[in-house]
Amino acid sequence: MEMYSTQKAVLEVEYFGEVGTGLGPTLEFYTLLSHELQKVGLGMWRSGSSFDKPSMEIDVDGQLGVKPQESASFSASGGDKHIIHVPLGLFPRPWPPNADTSDGSQFSKVIGYYRLLGRVMAKALQDGRLLDLPLSVAFYKLLLGQELDLHDISSFDVELGTTLQELQALVCRKQYLESTGNYNPEELHFRGTSIGDLCLDFSLPGYPEYILKPGNENVDISSLGDYISLVVDATVGTGVMRQLEAFRSGFNQVFDISTLQIFSPNELDYLLCGRRELWKAELLVDHIKFDHGYTSKSPAIVHLLEIMGEFTHEQQRAFCQFVTGAPRLPPGGLAVLKPKLTIVRKHSSSMNSTANNGSGPSESADDDLPSVMTCANYLKLPPYSSKIMHKLNIFIN
């Protein structure tokens, strides 16, 4: 990617040993690379709540490798277990300031991955390609040059953010009582427990190797304010600063990242990752082309549209990736998909089907699976004799 990041020409990808070229394989490449950059062992992202992890778990030999059929992918039944799944979106994992940056160290690899991510994201935006990266709103804010504070933490880690805000309220209460001369440390409790009994130390919650302050001092009510400030800085400031700098340096190799500041975080996510809601059942027939043996009234097409309208969100993603090479649709959805999604009749592989050349259903086709040409968004659908849901589950998986 570094080789092509400075080129203005549109990047297209083809795979050794595969016939297809063009849009479909290129979208598949960006999708596979997106999934590789979300793998647990890379040490790039926070994984769930800070209070769920007693210690850091990282595969020190974690490597990237984008190969069709071998990389992590999503299915209709759920996500890949090797990919980080966070409902509020991805946010950089904090690394301590003294993290080893020498060549070959884990943190040096993390820096390299963020530089790659910057190039990939910029090139995808430049070429109008989609990524499958569920980034958090807070991460987009950082990309746009906005500063984060205590209240932003809840947008990617609800438990940590809520806890810090409750602790900050105690600090404010303490300051108020001191100003009125009514301060009594025994009256200040966190959820019914004194601060001393919480046994907090100056390490980052969820990352015990990240030492916020030297020494073995525990946190008490008098040092609680300092503790909160250090946790916030490690979480959204110093702890992620070098990763963001690496991302920006990679991005700027393609075009100036400051040009993104005209967008809001939600607008940038829409441009980069497309629609999260892929389609509405009642609009499907208006945005799909039926050809070569099929019309919108053909029984197989009627059954397919009914099933597509019943898909869950994950099934929609799997179907979209099977047909187009990417699990998301561009801004505007099916209506602006180019080439337009086209569904044609696939003749049965059975010798007995040669006599059936109409557009009606065929029992001999029930043993066949659909096939696609992702470079043309072209679905070849056998004329199934009934609404066969399990067939669709097989081919999209």
TrEMBL record:
One of its GO terms (molecular function) is ubiquitin protein ligase activity. GO terms for biological process: proteasome-mediated ubiquitin-dependent protein catabolic process; protein polyubiquitination. SUPFAM superfamilies: Hect, E3 ligase catalytic domain. This is E3 ubiquitin-protein ligase UPL3. It comes from the Eukaryota. Residues 349-362 have a biased composition (Polar residues). Residues 111-397 form the HECT domain. Transmembrane segments: none annotated. Residues 348-367 are annotated as: Disordered. CDD domains: HECTc. It comes from Sesamum latifolium. The active site is at 375 (glycyl thioester intermediate). Keywords: Transferase, Ubl conjugation pathway. The keyword S-adenosyl-L-methionine does not apply. The keyword Iron does not apply.
